[in-house]
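Notes from hallway chat w/ T.B., transcribed later so I don't forget. T.B. wanted the structure written out for a chain they're using in a teaching module, and asked if we could keep both sequence and structure tokens in one place. Agreed to drop them here.
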Amino acid sequence: MILPAHLADESKRSQAPSALARLRAALNGALSAFIARIYRPFLEGALVWRYVTVAAFAAALMMGIAVILGEHLHVNLEEKGSYDTFHVHLMPPIGTPYAESEAMVKRFVDSLQKVEAELNPSPTPEMPKVVEGVEVFLDETDPMVYVEFTSEARRRFRLPDVVKSWYKHIGDVGDFSPDFHTPTEKDLADLEVELRAQDPAVLNTAADAVKARIARYPGIANLADSRKPGKPELRFRLKPEGERLGLRLKDLAERVRHAYEGEEAQRFMRGRAEVKIMVRHPRAERESIGDLLTLPVRLPNGGQAPLGTLAEIGFAPGYGGLKRADRMGVVELHVHLTDPPPQSPESISEDLEANLYPDLRRRFPGIEISRGEAAEEADEIMAGLKRNTLIALAVIYALLAVSFRSYAQTLPVPPGRARGLVGRPARALGARFKPVLSVVRRHGRGERGGRERQRGTARLHQTKADAGQGSRL
């Protein structure tokens, strides 16, 4: 038998242990000492006083769940990092004069100096100021203010705290509806409600009902609406006379578009640029409502008729911005609460879900109401935690069943207790489910570790004996 070179003569091998071997030996010695002096006596005492151990574990578990259900322990699933910039949409009401919007923007910018004095009363070389720069966009329908923080302020302060301080110093904003956003357009709101419907009238009615209900709750500091009012617009509706002549609403829309915006007559290249020649009515024929009503429309039979005799034309409020998803209109409501709030956002959401949303779904079939994108992400995380907890319990049970060779004596918790851990407390805990998961995981490790160590030494000696026999072959 020819042995490998490193097994031919053990006397030539160095007897000095390496640094890794000494570290491994030290760790093994410390672990053995901990098991012999602390863990084994504690485990033996727990087995002797098993009823006291079970009672203490049950009491600790109930106390932990009570602390979490009482909202004494908060875990937030949203990002905790701050941003270097954020912006605010002032959202003035429709028809607000430009001078009033400009004065409100000036008040927002001036209030930043009060925020600076409150958050940084004693400037230092490390943080000479909180606000690095301010940029203003004066728009007729949606003026905005962009704020940039210094790097040191971003490390010391959280963005919601800065926004609350700013909002406090601004004072009464009247009919303006300021909406604060992060650079990713994430709204800094305590509660968000999202409504979807195909019919704009149904969507607006349901949104107004939800806004009226939310406004009755105590502690509402601000209630923002994603619907941005626009300028009045003209809307067409085809008359029965036009339908009898074979016209469609699409034909009227194309005729008005060609008359006012123009119809492409020719396109050619001039160097590297593409040039389009558009033909439309003269400016003098496009400046009054009378010109629109007398606009000639060609009929399918070759004749012509004025637009006013073929369609009903009237003014209606326009939209400053439209948001759609899955071929439905979307309205988002953002609620900001006072600090501290007299009522938590979760309790407000639960009350709306129980007392208002069912009635709206009965009145408006097809409407969809949700708690917003952030809440949906939290629900997905919670669903993953529940699923992974069930998988962890199943794996713990399988490992213990193999070790104990029994299906009935190896459950880490009774089935009713397991359902309780994953069922009602999971719904009540919301985003605070990790402590329960940790309890389940630690319990499984403790049960399995205590049983396995009783047979560990025998298996180790048997393994060494098998290794010795293999080396002598």
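Follow-up for T.B.: The first strand starts at residue 85 and ends at 89. Might be a good example for the class.
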